[in-house]
Amino acid sequence: MIVELRQTTTAQVAKKLQELRESGGVVSLGRVLSLIVETDVQDLEQAVETANSASKLHPSRIIVIAKNTEEKTWLDAEIRVGGDAGASEVVILRANNEVLQNIESLVSGLLLPDAPIVAWWPTSAPVNLGRSSIGMMAGRRITDSARQENPVRFLKELARNYRPGDGDAAWTRITLWRSQLAAVYEAHVDQEVVQAKVFGSADSPSAHLLAAWLGLKLGTRVSLDSTSNADQVSGIRGVEIELSSGRISMTRKNQTVTIDQPGQPISAGLLPPRSDLDCLVEDLRFLGEDEIYAEILLKGLAHDNEGS
């Protein structure tokens, strides 16, 4: 069910939500969090689709703030429940920047009582999350540095302004890389690490984060090479670790990674790129501080920059 409210207020939206619960059996029981999504009108439906799908594992009330460039200064709203909202309730607020100057007052009356608040910016995001209007309300704040105008510069700003609860999809995208690398390296922990290299795009925040994480774990500088076999790399292509006994090499092509390591036959495994949905589901699974991510931002990323 989709209910549209034109030239409305948040009080009227909240009242309508209550009416829908009473008349149609729509309930907020079982919702585990409030998810505030800030995006542009052109990216609205993709953001709602991703949040709805994530709600199947993390039932939520989803409040979407969709910024438009129209001159009108009123608020339009849309409520989606039932089959149009997955396992969630979706409230979409459409307004221009003038109306959105006081976002807190717009959304505070729509939040679930006594439930965690998560803020998600699937596209453009503020560089100082904890001081943004939405960020100050939320205990967990999720961005996607890869979707910013200058991804690597944005990542450095995240590090400079980091607060507990901050998270980024660029970090979540390398979860499978980190798991594979940790499993492979475990058999060679007694070997001296000579050097290490990540083959990844120079403008990929995930490549920089992987190099920073690997450098901290190995205790050595990890370089970032944007070419592989004379080809420009897009995203992350692979990792090489030079050991005193030989070389560990992991190379991804499409969804498969080929692993070559000392004393073992060449093997292969699945290492598919992660979707926005995969990342959001993982980020919503744990609402506390990601201490490893914080360490990488505050220590490993600086070390990576020194070696670049």
From TrEMBL:
Annotated Glucose-6-phosphate dehydrogenase assembly protein OpcA C-terminal domain residues: 164-296
Domain Glucose-6-phosphate dehydrogenase assembly protein OpcA N-terminal: 51-159
InterPro entries: G6PDH_assembly_OpcA, OpcA_G6PD_C, OpcA_G6PD_N
UniProt-listed Pfam families: OpcA_G6PD_assem (PF10128), OpcA_G6PD_C (PF20171)
PANTHER family reported in the protein's UniProt record: OXPP CYCLE PROTEIN OPCA-RELATED
Name recorded for this polypeptide: Unannotated protein
Organism: freshwater metagenome
Lineage, opening ranks: unclassified sequences, metagenomes, ecological metagenomes
